[in-house]
Amino acid sequence: MIIRTLKEIRQSDRNVKSKGWESARLLLEDDAMGFSFHVTTMRAGSELKMHYKNHLESVMVLKGTGTIEDLATGETHDLKPGVLYALNENDEHIVRCETDILTACVFNPPVTGAEVHGEDGAYPAARPHVSAGSA
Amino acid sequence: MIIRTLKEIRQSDRNVKSKGWESARLLLEDDAMGFSFHVTTMRAGSELKMHYKNHLESVMVLKGTGTIEDLATGETHDLKPGVLYALNENDEHIVRCETDILTACVFNPPVTGAEVHGEDGAYPAARPHVSAGSA
Question: Can you list the residues of chain A whose pLDDT is less than 50?
Fold first, then answer.
C-alpha cells in the first residue's frame, strides 16, 4: 500500500512548475499502477494549448472556473467544480482560466515525471511506439 | 472529448448506492480510457472492509476524516483531505469513517459498472483471467 500526502509531494521533486500551471504528481509510472495521478493547478489568466498525442487524460475540476475549447469541433465548455473532461481521442484543446483551477488528473499511459511539453503541446511517449507493421 | 458533470452522473444509473457508500462513476470501461474514475462518498460511522483482488485502485481524499488499516501489515494511517492511498498490491484493507469521506478514485482495469462486491469484498474481474500456464 502506498500512502502519500499532497503536502509532501508539493515539497518534493514530484512537484513541477511551469508557465501557467503547477502539478503535484502523486502517482507516476514507477508506482506501477498503470496510470499516473496528478493534482494540477492552472493559473488565473492563463491560456493553455495542449495536445497529448501519446496519452489519454481525464481532468476533474475541484475548484475554480474557466473554459475548455475543443479544437477539433470549435466547441467551448464551461469548467467549474464537478465538471470532468476526458481527452479520449487525444483531443487538442485550449484551457482558459478565469481563476486558478484546481484539478485531479489521470494519465494513461502513466507519466514518468521526466517529460517536458514539446513545442507541439504533447508529452513524448514513455516508450517508443512500435506499429503493428514493424518487425 | 467527453464532458460530464458530477451533478448529471448523480442523477443517472452511473450513480451507485450501497451500505455505507455511494459512488458516482464519471468514467467507466465503455469510455475506453483504460481506467475508470469515480467520485465516492464513504459514510460517517461506516467500517468498510474491501479487497479488490482483480483491480488496482488509488483513492484521494477530498473531504472528511477517518483511517485506513492495511490488513497485511496491521498499520493504520490517518485519512484527511490531501491524503492518497494506492492499493498497488491489491491490498486488503478496512476504511473507518469518522465523518463522511469524499474521494476521487481510479481503478485499473476500469470498472464496467455492472460489478457487485462479492462476499470476499472484491469486484470480479471484468474478463476471465487466463493464467500463463493454461491452454
Answer: 127-135
Say if the Cβ atoms of B1 and A35 lie within 8 Å: no
Looking at the 3D structure of chain A, how many domains does it have? 1
Look at residue B113 in the predicted model and tell me its pLDDT.
87
pLDDT for residue A132: 38
Query: C-alpha angle with apex B54: B119 to A114, nearest 5 degrees?
Result: 145
For residue B128, is it within any domain? no
A95: domain CATH number is: 2.60.120.10
Q: Are B42 and B20 in contact (CB under 8 A)?
A: yes
List residues of chain A with CB under 8 Å from any CB of chain B.
1-7, 26-27, 31-35, 37, 39, 56, 58, 60, 62, 68, 70, 72-73, 77, 82-89, 91, 93, 104, 106, 108
ipTM: 0.88
pTM (2 d.p.): 0.89
